[in-house]
Task: structure prediction
Amino acid sequence: MQSHLRPLRPLRLAPWLLAAIVAACGKQESPDAAAAAPAKPVLSIEVVSPRAESWPGTVGASGAIAPWQEASVGSELGGIRLEEVRVNVGDRVQRGQLLARFSDETLKADLAQLDAVVAERQAALDKARLEAESADRLESSGGLSKQQARSVRTQAVVADAQLASAKAQRDAQALRLRYARVLAPDDGVISARSATVGAVVTPGVELFRLIRGGRLEWRAEVRSDALARLRKGTLATIKLPHGAAISGRVRQVAPTVDPATLNGIAYVDFPATPGLAAGLFVSGEFELAATDVLVVPASAVVFRSGSRYVMQVGDDSRIHEAKVETGRRRGADVEVLTGIAPGARLALAGGAFLNDGDLVAISASKTAATEP
Result:
């Protein structure tokens, strides 16, 4: 019986299709080969190492800016009209400078009248002295009794006393006339003015207030435990509202402490500086003895989840997060209290883009932060 099955023919593929299949098979990699491929760095960074430095200790404080000393310039006259005021608040004046002037016509008239009284008393004294000399001669020759001569000499003594009284009154009036010119008692800056042209003031009323020498001081409230560490000449630095920082020196430390707040007052002298005005309440700090600290650039510290970290670079160029505790900041550096060793290598910047275990490429190496 003859079979109807035909023998199978070999499969023939087009040459271009066969070439494509061979190429695709050649590109397929084994799992082992893929695992052996080198990992790529996620970031190229510069590294730094912490640096040991000697930083002065600090004590924070706050307090008001006040005049070093103030002079109250008042009126010595009463019932006299204020005719002229020459200065205003903020003006810098010199000792003896005219600040204000009272009307002096009446005072000058009274002084002229007393000058006439003095001249009259002087003439009366001269006459009494001549009479006393004549009485002495007559008494010696017997032409005048002792009692009469004594009476003449007594009149000369009375005339002398009357002249002294008239001179005293004239001097008092001359002093009142000088008081009509209100002069600055010292160099300084006018801090308050209540003088008004045309006002009739009473004696003792304050017309101006003067900051002597224009000097201001910081009355810093310092904790009692830190107050004993301050000395005359200790450096203090405050920051003004517009951001400028100025430095001064401790002039004096109060010998007492407020029992309610347990704070004492340190008086700090400051030079005249734009923006520094009496009445400002500012914060600052005092520099104490220096201590050894470990510092890193502030750019190397990353803030995450309420804590601070630095990105340490291991020998395998992988990142290891290290939680640190930081202290003071000075310029571009920050003090590190705990968390790293002096020889650690840290990412200088870019830590916010790195995670634990990331591979990095090191582009350069530096010592720690910039000089303070």
